[in-house]
Design brief:
Layout lengths: L1 E5 L6 H10 L3 E5 L1 H4 L5 H14 L4 E5 L3 H10 L3 E4 L18 E5 L2 H7 L7 E3 L6 H9 L3 H7 L1 E6 L8 H6 L31 H15 L7 H4 L2 H10 L14 H27 L4 E4 L11 E3 L8 H7 E6 L11 H8 L4 E4 L4 H4 L7 E3 L2 H12 L2 H18 L2 H14 L4
Parallel strand pairs: 1-2, 1-3, 3-4, 4-5, 5-6, 7-8, 7-10, 8-9, 10-11, 11-12
């Protein structure tokens, strides 16, 4: 079997590529997007077409959805297989999602429920996985010095999303005219009293977003933001950003989805991560590994980001407690970080997601929290109960090693392809 793997440098690509190769496939790789981030859809389509016309491919594969690849595969009648590992993915609103040669796998059940009705015979649910064998090699090679260097009471590896927050960029934009009452307070947007205001977003919208974020911070396992956005807030945020995603080839309205997830969802991630780390650092020794701006943090032991393949597993293994905070655009599913921490034999304490009980037993394989108070209580408990903490870490590792490796997941994917051939 020959396939084309179209790469753009997702962190899980090397693991998946290796499994396909181990399955006995001949894997052709197109990696121009790793070296050129300005590849156009036309260039992408031309490259993929060249591969299809040069080889007898069983399918083309990518991480996340590329409309240009989908259209090319549809035209040349070759299955296009992709696996979503992120959320949000605006490209899923492309009309290319309707193509009959698609075989699209989504890792989040809420994401699946939203998009599957568009092309129900070609879209499937498939949770993420991890490469236990890779992590085993890294962990077994650890030295005593590694355990000292990477050890921590509480560690968090990840972005603070400050560099990815489009909403914050709007707040920093140059002045623009907006309405305000004579007393200087922002009225309802339709109020006729007006004079120039020095901010691209009205006080009404900023206050609304702040209130929505505060409400969402109190609730885990349910995303309040999309359904509670007003049309005015959506329109104002969309109009304020000249780079707002305006897909010309879409099958439905995207503004609510984009504002909820790309703007407010990412701002929520900034607030939640900074606030959580600052609060925990008042009572515990907290170590952060990140390449984000950490100037808003106090008492957090901040270190540079770690190499995913060589250093990250050492952090997960050596830390007493590995904290995970799932960004809210991932509404129900389990992020790659959950699987990787467990695959490294690390003790995981994560925010509650509704899909966790589908795969793990809380309190036996991992631990969860649904409030800041519960998070603090569980950190305090598990820092003083080493034997119980170690047992949970071992259980979590054994669970993913038995049931949630890339070999298992990709075998499930291939079975779906066999059961649902293109006509």
């Amino acid at each position: 079997m020959e396939i084309l793997f179209y790469r753009y440098n997702s962190i899980c690509e090397p693991d998946i590529l290796q499994v396909f190769t181990n399955f006995g496939m001949t894997v052709h790789v197109e990696d121009m997007e790793i070296y050129d981030k300005h590849v156009t859809p036309r260039q992408c389509a031309e490259k993929v077409a060249d591969h299809i016309l040069s080889h007898a491919l069983s399918f083309v594969f990518s991480i996340n959805f590329f409309p240009a690849i989908s259209y090319t595969c549809e035209r040349l009648k070759v299955p296009y297989v992709c696996w979503s590992v992120d959320s949000p993915v605006p490209e899923l609103f492309s009309n290319a999602l309707k193509n009959t040669y698609n075989r699209i796998f989504l890792f989040d059940k809420a994401q699946y429920a939203s998009f599957a009705p568009v092309n129900p015979s070609c879209i499937y649910y498939l949770p993420l996985a991890t490469n236990v064998k890779r992590w085993e090699k890294a962990v077994l090679a650890m030295t005593d010095d590694d355990y000292v260097s990477y050890g921590a009471d509480v560690s968090f590896v990840g972005s603070l999303y400050t560099e990815k927050c489009r909403y914050d960029r709007l707040l920093q934009m140059p002045p623009s005219p907006h309405t305000a009452t004579a007393c200087g307070q922002m009225p309802h947007p339709d109020c006729p009293d007006a004079h120039p205001h020095n901010h691209p977003l009205s006080l009404y919208t900023r206050g609304f977003v702040d209130g929505l974020i505060e409400a969402q911070l109190k609730i885990y396992g349910c995303n309040l933001i999309p359904d509670n956005l007003t049309d005015q807030v959506i329109q104002e945020i969309a109009a304020a950003d000249p780079d707002f995603y305006k897909g010309e080839d879409t099958y439905g309205k995207t503004d609510r989805y984009l504002v909820a997830h790309q703007y407010i969802g990412m701002k929520l991630a900034v607030v939640e991560r900074e606030r959580t780390l600052n609060r925990l650092a008042k009572h515990f020794h907290v170590t952060l590994y990140t390449r984000s701006d950490t100037s808003a943090l106090s008492n957090v032991h901040c270190k540079d980001g770690v190499n995913t393949l060589t250093e990250m597993p050492k952090v997960f293994q050596a830390s007493k407690i590995n904290l995970n905070m799932t960004i809210r655009p991932i509404e129900t599913g389990l992020s790659l970080r959950v699987w990787d921490i467990l695959g490294c034999g690390g003790f995981l304490l994560t925010n509650y997601q509704t899909e966790i009980p589908d795969y793990f037993e809380i309190g036996k394989d991992l631990e969860t929290y649904e409030s800041m108070e519960e998070l603090e209580d569980k950190i305090q408990y598990y820092l003083t109960h080493e034997e119980e903490r170690t047992e949970i870490a071992i259980n979590g590792y054994e669970k993913v090693a038995r049931h949630h490796t890339y070999e298992i997941r990709l075998a499930q994917m291939l079975q779906v392809l066999m059961d649902n051939p293109v006509s």
